[in-house]
Amino acid sequence: MPELPEVEALAGFLRERATGHAVARVDVLAIQALKTYDPPITSLGGLTVTGVARHGKFLDLDVDGLHLVVHLARAGWLRWREEMPSRPVRPGGKNPLALRVHLDDGSGFDLTEAGTKKGLAVYVVRDPREVPGVASLGPDPLDEAFTPEALHAIVKGKRTQIKGLLRDQKVVAGIGNAYSDEVLHVARMSPFKIASSLTEEDVRGLHEAIVGTLRDAVERSRGLAAQDLKGEKKTGLRVHARTGQKCPVCGDTIREVSFADSSLQYCPTCQTGGKPLADRRMSRLLK
Fold this sequence. Notes:
- This protein has 287 residues and is of the alpha+beta class.
- The chain has two domains: 4-135, MutM-like, N-terminal (N-terminal domain of MutM-like DNA repair proteins), CATH 3.20.190.10; 148-286, Helicase, Ruva Protein, domain 3 (Orthogonal Bundle).
- The chain is built from nine helices and ten strands.
- The chain has helices at 4-17, 132-135, 148-155, 162-167, 177-186, 200-221, 229-236, 268-271, 280-286; strands at 23-28, 49-55, 58-63, 66-71, 76-81, 97-103, 108-113, 121-125, 255-258, 263-266.
- The strands form three sheets. Strands 1-6-7-5 form a four-stranded antiparallel beta sheet, with no helix packed on it. A four-stranded antiparallel beta sheet has the order 2-3-4-8, covered by helices on one side.
- A hairpin with a 2-residue loop joins strand 3 (58-63) and strand 4 (66-71).
- The two termini are 33 Å apart.
- Residues 282-287 have low confidence and may be disordered.
């Protein structure tokens, strides 16, 4: 799933290539991806892209005051084309193409989504805050207002595991499954640690890990072409999706805890005092 660093990089990529160009037309191939109908998506035709922004994990193209807002969900992606195909694409079937935006110079981009579970969401609104997911976002961790004191106020009294809290977009915007694993590894903190139990020292360390990890990922992705961002994210991860490999810090074996539709990875030596965390799914399999 694209998270804050990848969406930030996509925003920068589009800012350089799409700003100043008019939208020639928009082809909708997967009608279920379009979540709004007023104004209609056809109203973007003839309008000019004047800016590109990010709200958490949402991508926002300002098109002469209308906003094309995209959430790529788990398996969505943006593919830039210097020259768009002239032949129309038929909707349906196994085609992963959900939406195609043609610009006035012949370039443009596709929004694609792999797999059968569809979550890609596209909105055309007059104000990004009309999108429910944007309106409910928590503070952005790269904003100057996201201070250790602000994080302390967030975790105070929260009787929930810190891993889940970091992934909650209403609490902190932009962090997903991958970067929450990375942040907690840098902070040397168990993903199962209860948020309200964090000391002031814990909060300062966690804040430093959040901001540092995300900024490093943004810098690594800056200037990369859209098609290279997934590979950069994968090579930059230290523990996420690296089950069974050696921790780059201590050399211990990275372990995994599986859930119904996701999993987390961590280093026992760095994060849990050498103790493996309970994996209920594996426990059931062993019975």
